[in-house]
Design goal:
Elements: H1 10-43, E1 53-55, E2 57-73, E3 76-80, E4 85-90, E5 97-98, E6 103-107, H2 110-145, H3 151-183, E7 186-188, E8 193-197, E9 205-206, E10 217-222, E11 227-234, E12 246-251, E13 258-266, E14 271-272, E15 279-287, E16 299-316, E17 321-322, E18 328-334, E19 337-342, E20 344-348, E21 352-357, E22 364-366, E23 390-392
Antiparallel strand pairs: 1-22, 2-11, 2-16, 3-10, 4-6, 4-9, 5-8, 6-7, 8-10, 11-15, 12-13, 12-16, 13-15, 14-15, 16-21, 16-23, 17-18, 18-19, 20-21
Amino acid sequence: MASPPKKTTPLRFIIRLVITLAVLGGAVWGGRALWKQIGPGLFGTKREAKIPTSTVKVANIAEEIVAVGRLRAVFSTELRAEINGRIMKISVTDGEPVKRDQELLRLDQQDILTQIQESDRNIEASKLKALRAKREFDRQKDLKARELVTTKDFEETRTTLSLAENEAAIYEARAANLRDKLTKTVLRAPHDGTLLLRDLTEGQLITSAAAQNGGTLLGEVADLSALMVRTNINEIDVARLKVADVARVRVDSLRNMMLNGEIKRIATVATESVGDRTRVFPVDVVVDETDPRLRPGMSATVMFTLAHVENVPAVPLSAVFSNADSVRYVFVQKGESFEVRGIDIGIVDTRRVQIIAGLAVGEAVALMRPLEYTGEIPIAKPTAPLKARVKRRTGS
């Protein structure tokens, strides 16, 4: 016999109704919030977008030129062989201190020694020929005095003697050249310093400095007690630098190390940058301090401070705009809207702009163009007096 159907109690019905209404209410609220976010973007300009702002604050600003370069010794000499040859012996190791005229490496000498022996034999033979020709000339000279030989025979003996003497002189010159070449098989330190040797091995063939490509670079002898950074400055900024200006040097591999330096040389003639083919001028900055961790070839960043100001009004770079007449202006917040205001600016760093006139500390400015401002904005420069405490670099 089937059981009677269960009856729904009023309490259960009320609970189900409340749950259903709560789910529907949440769905409606979520859909409305989603529509507020994507609706304006799908069907028109998003007019409710909030414009980010920033207030005018007091700051210290430094105008700098930043360039990159590599550490190198102030005084160093590249090592290249004067002749072609095969390395037979390397007498020193990389990084070893060396003294002037100390032997660094030696090339194979066997072929030159053989040529010298041959040349010595030729010299000896040519001297014997010259001695025999001299005796014959003396004999012909005596006969000529007694008029027993013809002038032609006498002149032939004189010529034979001259040729023999010339031949001996030629062989002696060749021998001297070979002995000089022999001395060049030994590479010596040109001055005191530290040897920075390339990756060389005994038995390796090298070419001389007279080769088309400049020959094999064997290394260099460098005085590591004085280091410098050679960097390239573009033709616009180089006119603002001069010898004896100070600079700050940061070695990239040693982030916590900041060194002081001084410009010692600015190239007179520009060179062409390999990367973008712009005209640049090599500038040498000598580092005032040394550290055993510093090595030639390390990458370094050089910062030249052109001017700096202290405790001046400043705004972020993105807050300053410019029109076709190069007039700078900002959008100053006034309640819920913005107004355009012309300004005068001073020096600029990588983040901020100095405000000389047109803004006061505490005012809020837009960091992007408000939507209601479109197209070119005609605006005149401010007439406020220019007041700023600017500290120029030393010597300017």
